[in-house]
């Protein structure tokens, strides 16, 4: 098996390695070794890397005999950073020995594009805030000046124009609030500062799956699987929490964490990670129902979107 893996490693351009039960490298391909400016032979001969970012996580997976799908960040030999979507799986050798297989696909371009998109959205929001504040300042100055102007002798036509301006400034403020701010309470002072609505968060992201994210059929299958499986798993998790079966709770939360992480449902991933930690350590157990409900709310929104897109 190890010999077959060695042959496969030579023909793939993606970083791959195999570690033994002690976390030592036994197979490394050139794509992985290149990240550190080394040869596969040099890494295998030494068995370890001075900067093995994954060692602690790999040992944990080996001990737990688990499968993991996660994002990893490597600082390469050139000093640049690179992001990878990595799958790690434990397997048993022909003589019963335990190994960990790690396969990575680079997603640096995806992460960079996502970051630029978020920065662009933030810049747009800041520009809207600046324009909004300019108009609010102008309206406030007008409203403060009008009483002074109305207190001096005026012709009927002048007074009519000023009162019309006063009415118009109030309407402008209300329209501005409706465009860029949440609903304002009726008793709010006309000069009270209005806050803009926060941008709608991105619930999920298939782009980090690489080229397969462009396969519409594959994405539809993933959406159907999510709809069919995740709500049911959440129901099972709820039952485990109600039974105070913390071992089963941690196991299901771990599976859901990986599922959410695969399509970057960040808040639900974080919630499942916290549930897994709390259930494993038996600490802060009272937080679990709230975390579970938060994940369910997000899941319901994603399911609704997927259902609508699938027609």
- Termini Cα gap: 45 Å
- What is the radius of gyration? 29 Å
Query: Any guess at the CATH architecture of the largest domain?
Result: 2-Layer Sandwich
At the fold tier of CATH, the topology name of the largest domain is Beta-Lactamase
Domain unit count: 3
Please, what is the average pLDDT?
79
Structural class: alpha+beta
Shape: elongated
Beta-strand level of the residues, as a percent range? Answer: 5-15%
Entry keywords:
311 residues, alpha+beta, Beta-Lactamase, Four Helix Bundle (Hemerythrin (Met), subunit A), 3 domains, five-stranded antiparallel sheet, 10 helices, 59% helix, elongated, PAS, Sig_transdc_His_kin_Hpt_dom, PAS domain S-box protein
Gist of the model:
This protein is α+β, with helices and mostly antiparallel strands and 311 residues long. It has ten helices and five strands; from the N terminus they run H-E-E-H-H-H-E-E-E-H-H-H-H-H-H.
């Amino acid at each position: 098996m190890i010999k077959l893996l060695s042959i496969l490693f030579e023909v793939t351009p993606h970083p791959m390695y195999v570690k033994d039960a002690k976390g030592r490298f036994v197979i490394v391909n050139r794509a992985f070794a290149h990240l550190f400016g080394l040869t596969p032979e040099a890494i295998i001969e030494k068995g370890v890397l001075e900067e093995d970012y994954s060692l602690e996580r790999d040992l944990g997976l080996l001990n737990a005999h688990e499968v993991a799908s996660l994002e990893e960040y490597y600082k390469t030999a050139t000093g640049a950073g690179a992001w990878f979507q990595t799958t790690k799986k434990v397997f048993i050798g022909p003589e019963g020995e335990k190994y960990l297989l790690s396969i990575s696909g680079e997603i640096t371009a995806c992460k960079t594009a996502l970051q630029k998109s978020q920065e662009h959205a933030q810049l747009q929001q800041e520009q809207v805030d600046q324009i909004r504040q300019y108009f609010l300042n102008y309206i406030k100055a007008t409203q403060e000046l009008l009483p002074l102007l109305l207190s001096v002798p005026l012709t009927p036509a002048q007074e009519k124009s000023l009162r019309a301006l006063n009415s118009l400034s109030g309407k402008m403020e209300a329209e501005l609030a409706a465009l860029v701010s949440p609903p304002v309470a009726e008793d709010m002072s006309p000069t009270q500062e209005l806050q803009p609505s926060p941008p709608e968060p991105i619930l999920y992201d298939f782009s980090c799956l690489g080229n397969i994210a462009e396969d519409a059929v594959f994405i539809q299958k993933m959406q159907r699987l999510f709809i069919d499986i995740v709500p049911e798993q959440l129901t099972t998790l709820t039952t485990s929490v109600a039974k105070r079966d913390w071992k089963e709770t941690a196991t299901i939360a771990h599976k859901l964490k990986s599922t959410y992480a695969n399509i970057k449902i960040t808040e639900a991933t974080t919630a499942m990670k916290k549930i897994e930690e709390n259930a494993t350590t038996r600490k802060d157990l009272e937080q679990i129902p709230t975390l579970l409900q938060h994940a369910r709310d997000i899941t319901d929104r994603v399911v609704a979107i997927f259902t609508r897109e699938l027609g």
